[in-house]
Automatic annotation (TrEMBL):
<feature type="transmembrane region" description="Helical">
    <location>
        <begin position="210"/>
        <end position="239"/>
    </location>
</feature>
<feature type="domain" description="Amino acid permease N-terminal">
    <location>
        <begin position="90"/>
        <end position="157"/>
    </location>
</feature>
<keyword id="KW-1003">Cell membrane</keyword>
<protein>
    <submittedName>
        <fullName>Solute carrier family 12 member 1</fullName>
    </submittedName>
</protein>
<dbReference type="InterPro" id="IPR018491">
    <property type="entry name" value="SLC12_C"/>
</dbReference>
<dbReference type="GO" id="GO:0016324">
    <property type="term" value="C:apical plasma membrane"/>
</dbReference>
<keyword id="KW-0175">Coiled coil</keyword>
<dbReference type="InterPro" id="IPR004842">
    <property type="entry name" value="SLC12A_fam"/>
</dbReference>
<keyword id="KW-0739">Sodium transport</keyword>
<keyword id="KW-0915">Sodium</keyword>
<dbReference type="Pfam" id="PF00324">
    <property type="entry name" value="AA_permease"/>
</dbReference>
<feature type="domain" description="SLC12A transporter C-terminal">
    <location>
        <begin position="694"/>
        <end position="1099"/>
    </location>
</feature>
<feature type="transmembrane region" description="Helical">
    <location>
        <begin position="545"/>
        <end position="564"/>
    </location>
</feature>
<keyword id="KW-0325">Glycoprotein</keyword>
<feature type="transmembrane region" description="Helical">
    <location>
        <begin position="570"/>
        <end position="591"/>
    </location>
</feature>
<feature type="transmembrane region" description="Helical">
    <location>
        <begin position="326"/>
        <end position="347"/>
    </location>
</feature>
<dbReference type="InterPro" id="IPR002443">
    <property type="entry name" value="SLC12A1/SLC12A2"/>
</dbReference>
C-alpha cells in the first residue's frame, strides 16, 4: 500500500520525489526482524489506525535517496512536532497514523454520529469534514490541540460534544420500557376491554358462531392491516414520542398529522371517561345487588367515577414506572379471569346453571348456535358496530413511543403479538360460549321436559329443559338476554367481576397516559401556537404534567355528564380515522417512491395498506354514519387551518416526495407536447441580483408571469470562484425563502462566473427544465451608464446581444428612481442590529437586577445599571444619527416609494403600447396580460403604431381589425404618421451633448492620428458610424418627443425596443439611444420578442 503526498501541498521546499514513501506488510517473526536489521537503512515503524497487532505489521520503506530528505524534513523547525503541538494535516507524525485507515487524507470513516440530528438524545452529532476541506489545498502551520487530527478525521472533535455528553448523563435516570412491558402488555389490556366479558356472549347469540367468527375476523383484518402499516412506518427511522401523531405527521406532513393529532389526543381523553364510567356502572350494579346505594344510580356513577379518575391521575403523575407496574398487575388479574372462564366451561354444570342455559360443551348447542338469529332492529353490521371498538387499542404501545428503549423493534413486535394473542382469546371465548350456552333460558329449575313432549329440534329440549315460553315472552337468561353469561359459566364468578374491573381500569389508565403524551408531542412541534403552553415536560422522563391536568379535566367533565352513549360513536370514529391515516401513510410513502422509504419491516404491501385505509373509512360509516361525517368535518377544518398557518417544519414527508414525483412526471410529460402559439406564455429570466435588492423590477415581471408563466430571479456572482460559491450557497435558501414569504411565485437561481456576461450567458442557456425554459430576458435599465466603467457597459449591451443570439426576447424596464435599493437595505439592517443590541442590553441588565439577592447590593447595581443605560443609549442614538447623516443620499424616501410602486393597485389610467415594430406580438401580449391583473385592471390599453399620414384612417381600421381578431380589448388606436421627421433642434442638441464625451471626432484629425485613436479607443463613437445611423438616431430622439406629447400621463409605456446591429452600432451609441428614448417619462417597458408568433387568431 503506497501513500502519495503532493509536495505543493505539504512541503513547498522539498521536491515532490523526496516526499514519497511506502507502507509494506511484513511478517511478525525473528527472521524478518533480523533481515530488516541487516539493511543499510533500518526500517522505521509507525503507528496506524489498524490496532495494536496491525501496528506491528506495518513498516515504512523509503525509496533510494529519500531517507536523508525524510530525516531533514522531520528535524526542520517548521514540521517537527511534539505531542503537544503538531500539524493537523501532518502526514509524518506518529499521531497521523491514528487517523482514517492511515491514508494521507482528511476523509472520515462512516459513523452513526454523522447522521444524527442536532440535539439527538441518543448521542452527540458529529460533523464530518466538508467537501471544501477535503478538496481545497490544505493550510499550513495550523495551531491545533493534541490529538485534534484524530478527533477531526474521525468526527469526534466537534463543538458541543461536552454538552451532548452531559445531556446523555442527564438521561441516565430516564425510565425506558422494552417491548413486553411497554407495548405487549398495554396493547393486550386495551384490546381486552369490557366487551370481552359482557357483550361477546350477546354478539354470539345474535350473529351465531359462524358470523360471530367473521365479525371478529373482519375486525382483526382492520387492526392487523393497520398494525402492519404502523410497523413499516416505525421501522423506517427513529421514532420519537407522540405515537400515532408522530407516525402520521412525519409521513404525511403537519397538515394531516396536526389535524389527526388533536382529535386523537381528545379521543383518548374522552376515552378515559368512557372506561371509568364503565367501571363505575359495574360497581353501582354490585351496590344495587347488596342494596348499598349512596344517592341514586346516576350520582353514584359520578361519585365513583370522580374518585377513580383521581386515583388513576395519581398513579400516572407518580411516573411511568408506577403506571407500568399497575398495568402488569391488572394484566395478571385479567389473565386469571379469562383462564377462570375456560376452566368453568369444563366444570360440570349444576341444575341452577342448566336452568340458565349452561350445559357444558354440547354438539347440539354448537349446531343450534352456529347460524344467526337476529332480533328486531339488529343485523350483521349493527352487531359488528357494537363489537368493533373491542378490537381497537392497538396504538396503546405506540402512544408512549418516547418512553420505549427501541421503538422501532418494540412497536411492531409487541403490537402484532398482542393482536394475535387477543384474537385467539376472542375466538376461543366466542366459540366456547356458543358451544356451551343456549340462546334463551328461563332460569327456572322446574322448566324440565314433560314426557311425550315434542322438542322440535331444540338443543335445550334434547338436554331435558323446556325453554319454549321464551319464544312468546322475554326471558332473563341465555346468550341473547344475559350480559353476565361469562360470570355464570366461570369457575368463580367474582373473578370475572375482577376481570371487568381490570379491563376498564387498565384501558382508562392507558388512555390517561396516551392523551398527554400525544398532546405534548403535538404542542412541541408548535403546529398550534396557542397550545405551546402544554409542551413543557417535567423530570427525567419529561412528563407532561400540564397535559395530565388537562386530560383529567376533560375526563371529569364527561364523567359528570354520566351519559356517554352519544359521544361514544364519535370517539370510535376518531380512533378509526387514525387507523385509516396510518394505513394511508404507508401507502403514500410507498407510492411516492422516495429513496428514503426503506422500512426494515418488509411484510407490507402498499396496495394492501390502501385497502386497509379504505376499509377503515367504510367501517366508520358502518358503525355510525353521522359520527363519521362529524369526524371528517372536524378533520377537514383542522387540515385547512394547519395548511393556512403553514407551520415552519420540514419532516421530509411523503407528501413532499409525491409533490416532487408529480412535478417530475408533469415536466417529462410536457416534453412530449409540441409548442403551440396558443399556449405561449412569457417565461422570464429576471436579472434582479438578490430579489430583495430590486423589488420593483421583480414586481413588474411577476405581474405578467404570476399564474401564467415561469419567473426566475437570477444573480451572477463575479470574483474568485471559492468565495463566490460560498456566498452563493449560503444565500440560496434565504433568497428563495424571501420570495415565498412575499408570495412571489418565482424561482431563484445563481451562478458564479469570471465576468457578468459569462454568468448571464450560462443562465440563458441552462436555466429552466424541459419545456419550462425561459423565452424572455428582463433587465433593469442601466441608469448610471455614463459613470460606469466601460467593461460594465460592454457586459450590459453584450447580454442583450447574447439573448438575441439565443433567440430569446428582451424586456428593459426603466423607472425614474432606479431599481437598486441595496444601500437602503444595508442601513435598515444596521438600524435593526443596533436596536437588537439595545434590547439585549436592557434585558441583560433586567436579568441581573432580578438575580441580585441583597437589597443594598441590588440597589447599588440598579444605580450602576441605570448609569450604564444612560451612557449607552445616547451612544446608540448617536450611531443611528451618524448612519442617517452618512447615508442621507442612499436612504432616499423617493427610492423606497419607487421600489414599491408596482405592488400597489394602479390608479385609473392607461397603458400606452407603442407597437412600432412587429416582433411576433410580445410587445402587445405583455400589456394585455397586465390588464388582466387585479392591480392593473383599471388601466385601459391605448395602441400607438406608425403609419402614413395620407392613410391614417385605413391603417386605423386595419389595426382595429387585427386586434379584434386577436381578441384584445383596447380603448383607442393612434396612428402616428410623423415619426420619421427630424426632431427639434433642442432635442437633437441634448442628444449630441449626451454623446459628445464618447465621440472620436476622427474626421477632424489627420489619418495617422485617427487610426491611432481608433486602436487606442475602439469603444468610442466614430463620425462614420454616427453618420451611417443618423436616421435611426433621429428616430429615437423624435420618438421621445412623441412620447412626451402623447404618453406623459400614462401609468406605463410599453415600447418596441430598438435593436442594435452587431458590429455596426457601438455600445455607447446604443445606450445613448435608450437614454434619449426613455428620458423624462413614466415607467417604460422596452420589449422586443424573438420574432416568432406569440399571438394567433386561429382557434
Amino acid at each position: 500500500m503506497s501513500l502519495n503526498n503532493s509536495s505543493n501541498i505539504f512541503l513547498d521546499s522539498v521536491p515532490s520525489n523526496t516526499n514519497r514513501f511506502q507502507v509494506n506488510v511484513i511478517n511478525e517473526n525473528h527472521e524478518s526482524c533480523a533481515a530488516a536489521n541487516d539493511n543499510t537503512d533500518p526500517p522505521h515503524y509507525e503507528e496506524t489506525s489498524f490496532g495494536d497487532e496491525a501496528q506491528k505489521r506495518l513498516r515504512i520503506s523509503f525509496r533510494p535517496g529519500n531517507q536523508e530528505c525524510y530525516d531533514n524534513f522531520l528535524q526542520s523547525g517548521e514540521t517537527a512536532k511534539t505531542d503537544a503541538s503538531f500539524h493537523a494535516y501532518d502526514s509524518h507524525t506518529n499521531t497521523y497514523y491514528l487517523q482514517t485507515f492511515g491514508h494521507n487524507t482528511m476523509d472520515a470513516v462512516p459513523k452513526i454520529e454523522y447522521y444524527r440530528n442536532t440535539g439527538s438524545i441518543s448521542g452527540p452529532k458529529a460533523n464530518r469534514p466538508s467537501l471544501l476541506e477535503i478538496h481545497e489545498q490544505l493550510a499550513k502551520n495550523v495551531a491545533v490541540a493534541p490529538n485534534a487530527a484524530d478527533r477531526v478525521a474521525n468526527g469526534d472533535g466537534i463543538p458541543g460534544d461536552e454538552q451532548a455528553e452531559n445531556k446523555e448523563d442527564d438521561q441516565a435516570g430516564v425510565v425506558k420500557f422494552g417491548w413486553v412491558k411497554g407495548v405487549l402488555v398495554r396493547c393486550m389490556l386495551n384490546i381486552w376491554g369490557v366487551m370481552l366479558f359482557i357483550r361477546l356472549s350477546w354478539i354470539v347469540g345474535e350473529a351465531g358462531i359462524g358470523l360471530g367468527v367473521i365479525i371478529i375476523g373482519l375486525s382483526v383484518v382492520v387492526t392487523t392491516l393497520t398494525g402492519i402499516s404502523m410497523s413499516a412506518i416505525c421501522t423506517n427511522g427513529v421514532v420519537r414520542g407522540g405515537g400515532a401523531y408522530y407516525l402520521i405527521s412525519r409521513s404525511l406532513g403537519p397538515e394531516f398529522g396536526g389535524s389527526i393529532g388533536l382529535i386523537f389526543a381528545f379521543a383518548n381523553a374522552v376515552a378515559v371517561a368512557m372506561y371509568v364510567v364503565g367501571f363505575a356502572e359495574t360497581v353501582v350494579d354490585l351496590l344495587k345487588e347488596s342494596d348499598s346505594m349512596m344517592v341514586d344510580p346516576t350520582n353514584d356513577i359520578r361519585i365513583i367515577g370522580s374518585i377513580t379518575v383521581v386515583i388513576l391521575l395519581g398513579i400516572s403523575v407518580a411516573g411511568m414506572e408506577w403506571e407500568a407496574k399497575a398495568q402488569v398487575i391488572l394484566l395478571i388479574i385479567l389473565l386469571i379471569a379469562i383462564a377462570n372462564f375456560f376452566i368453568g366451561t369444563v366444570i360440570p354444570s349444576n341444575n341452577e346453571k342448566k336452568s340458565r342455559g349452561f350445559f357444558n360443551y354440547q354438539a347440539s348447542i354448537f349446531a343450534e348456535n352456529f347460524g344467526p338469529r337476529f332480533t328486531k332492529g339488529e343485523g350483521f353490521f349493527s352487531v359488528f358496530a357494537i363489537f368493533f371498538p373491542a378490537a381497537t387499542g392497538i396504538l396503546a404501545g405506540a402512544n408512549i413511543s418516547g418512553d420505549l428503549e427501541d421503538p422501532q423493534d418494540a412497536i411492531p413486535r409487541g403490537t402484532m403479538l398482542a393482536i394475535f394473542i387477543t384474537t385467539v382469546a376472542y375466538l376461543g371465548v366466542a366459540i366456547c360460549v356458543g358451544a356451551c350456552v343456549v340462546r334463551d333460558a328461563t332460569g327456572n329449575v322446574n322448566d324440565t321436559i314433560i314426557s311425550g313432549m315434542n322438542c322440535n329440534g331444540s338443543a335445550a329440549c334434547g338436554l331435558g329443559y323446556d325453554f319454549s315460553r321464551c319464544r312468546h315472552e322475554p326471558c332473563q337468561y341465555g346468550l341473547m338476554n344475559n350480559f353476565q353469561v361469562m360470570s355464570m359459566v366461570s369457575g368463580f364468578g367474582p373473578l370475572i367481576t375482577a376481570g371487568i374491573f381490570s379491563a376498564t381500569l387498565s384501558s382508562a389508565l392507558a388512555s390517561l397516559v396516551s392523551a398527554p403524551k400525544v398532546f405534548q408531542a403535538l404542542c412541541k412541534d408548535n403546529i398550534y401556537k396557542a397550545l405551546q403552553f402544554f409542551a413543557k415536560g417535567y423530570g427525567k422522563n419529561n412528563e407532561p404534567l400540564r397535559g395530565y391536568i388537562l386530560t383529567f379535566l376533560i375526563a371529569m367533565a364527561f364523567i359528570l355528564i354520566a351519559e356517554l352513549n352519544t359521544i361514544a360513536p364519535i370517539i370510535s370514529n376518531f380512533f378509526l380515522a387514525s387507523y385509516a391515516l396510518i394505513n394511508f401513510s404507508c401507502f403514500h410513502a410507498s407510492y411516492a417512491k422516495s429513496p428514503g422509504w426503506r422500512p426494515a419491516y418488509g411484510i407490507y404491501n402498499m396496495w394492501v395498506s390502501l385497502f386497509g385505509a379504505v376499509l377503515c373509512c367504510a367501517v366508520m360509516f358502518v358503525i355510525n354514519w353521522w359520527a363519521a361525517v362529524i369526524t371528517y368535518v372536524i378533520e377537514f377544518f383542522l387540515y385547512i387551518y394547519v395548511t393556512y398557518k403553514k407551520p415552519e417544519v420540514n419532516w421530509g414527508s411523503s407528501t413532499q416526495a409525491l409533490s416532487y414525483v408529480s412535478a417530475l412526471d408533469n415536466a417529462l410529460e410536457l416534453t412530449t407536447v409540441e409548442d403551440h402559439v396558443k399556449n405561449f406564455r412569457p417565461q422570464c429570466i429576471v436579472l434582479t441580483g438578490g430579489p430583495m435588492t430590486r423589488p420593483a423590477l421583480l414586481d413588474i415581471t411577476h405581474a405578467f408571469t404570476k399564474n401564467s408563466g415561469l419567473c426566475i430571479c437570477c444573480e451572477v456572482f463575479v470574483g474568485p470562484r471559492k468565495l463566490c460559491v460560498k456566498e452563493m450557497n449560503s444565500g440560496m435558501g434565504k433568497k428563495q425563502a424571501w420570495l415565498i414569504k412575499n408570495k412571489i411565485k418565482a424561482f431563484y437561481a445563481a451562478v458564479a462566473a469570471d465576468c457578468f456576461r459569462d454568468g448571464v450567458r450560462s443562465l440563458l442557456q441552462a436555466s429552466g427544465l424541459g419545456r419550462m425554459k425561459p423565452n424572455t430576458l428582463v433587465i433593469g435599465y442601466k441608469k448610471n451608464w455614463r459613470k460606469a466603467p466601460l467593461t460594465e457597459i460592454e457586459n450590459y449591451v453584450g447580454i442583450i446581444h447574447d439573448a438575441f443570439d439565443f433567440e430569446i426576447g428582451v424586456a428593459i424596464v426603466r423607472i425614474s428612481q432606479g431599481f437598486d435599493i441595496s444601500q437602503v437595505l444595508q442601513v435598515q439592517e444596521e438600524l435593526e442590529r443596533l436596536e437588537q443590541e439595545r434590547l439585549a442590553l436592557e434585558a441583560t441588565i433586567k436579568d441581573n437586577e432580578c438575580e441580585e439577592g441583597s437589597g443594598g447590593i441590588r440597589a447599588l447595581f440598579k444605580k450602576a445599571s441605570k448609569l450604564n443605560i444612560t451612557k449607552t443609549t445616547p451612544k446608540n442614538d448617536g450611531s443611528i444619527n451618524t448612519i442617517q447623516s452618512m447615508h442621507v443620499g442612499e436612504f432616499n424616501q423617493k427610492l423606497v416609494e419607487a421600489s414599491t410602486q408596482f405592488k400597489k393597485k394602479q390608479e385609473k389610467g392607461t397603458i400606452d403600447v407603442w407597437w412600432l415594430f412587429d416582433d411576433g406580438g410580445l410587445t402587445l401580449l405583455i400589456p394585455y396580460i397586465l390588464t388582466l391583473r387585479k392591480k392593473w385592471k383599471d388601466c385601459k390599453l391605448r395602441i400607438y403604431v406608425g403609419g402614413k399620414i395620407n392613410r391614417i384612417e385605413e391603417e386605423k381600421i386595419a389595426m382595429a381589425s387585427l386586434l379584434s381578431k386577436f381578441r384584445i380589448k383596447f380603448a383607442d388606436i393612434h396612428i402616428i404618421g410623423d415619426i420619421n421627421i427630424k426632431p427639434s433642434k433642442e432635442s437633437w442638441k441634448v442628444f449630441e451633448e449626451m454623446i459628445e464625451p464618447y465621440r472620436l471626432h476622427e474626421s477632424c484629425k489627420d489619418l495617422t492620428t485617427a487610426e491611432k485613436l481608433k486602436r487606442e479607443t475602439p469603444w468610442k463613437i466614430t463620425d462614420a458610424e454616427l453618420e451611417a445611423v443618423k436616421e435611426k438616431s433621429y428616430r429615437q430622439v423624435r420618438l421621445n418627443e412623441l412620447l412626451q406629447e402623447h404618453s406623459r400621463a400614462a401609468n406605463l409605456i410599453v415600447l418596441s425596443l430598438p435593436v442594435a446591429r452587431k458590429g455596426s452600432i457601438s455600445d455607447l451609441l446604443y445606450m445613448a439611444w435608450l437614454e434619449i428614448l426613455t428620458k423624462n417619462l413614466p415607467p417604460v417597458l422596452l420589449v422586443r420578442g424573438n420574432h416568432k408568433n406569440v399571438l394567433t387568431f386561429y382557434s
